[in-house]
Amino acid sequence: MPDILFFLLAGHYCGDYALQSDHVARNKPSSVLILTTHVLIYTLTVTTALIVGLTLNGYGAIWSSITVYIAMIVFATHGVQDYIKSAKFSAGKQAQY
Predict the structure, then answer these.
(1) Quick count: other Cβ atoms within 10 Å of Cβ 65?
(2) Dihedral of CA 1/70/48/89: which sign?
(3) Three-state SS for 1?
(4) Taking burial as the number of CB atoms within 10 A of a residue's CB, which of 27, 28, 63, 71 is the most buried?
């Protein structure tokens, strides 16, 4: 079985790149709703990948009880990270005009 890290990286790629449209990428800095939607999709994707990885590696029963807490941590950290990146992008974009 592939390592759990593989599933986390696959979930990250899918949630942050493959499932993020150009519209979302362009408008995250200016819309809290779009940013929150992106973070929710990212969280669901990474959490699903983690559950699959843990289950296939025989850890599903052990870790299933804390999956909700892991999802909340992923949501909060990715939300803050993208918000800060969006704020920096917006500030830089405004400075160019």
Answers:
(1) 8
(2) negative
(3) coil
(4) 28
Residue 90: which region, alpha, beta or left (left: phi > 0; alpha: psi -120 to 50)? alpha
Q: What is the pTM of this model?
A: 0.84
Taking phi over 0 as left and psi of -120 to 50 as alpha, with beta for the rest, 2 belongs to: beta
Pull the structure tokens for residue 13. 């790629």
pLDDT digits (tens, 9 = 90+) for 46-74: 999 988 988 888 887 766 678 888 899 99
- Reading the block at residue 29, the tokens are 């800095």
Nearest CA-CA partner of 69 in 90, 47, 89 = 47
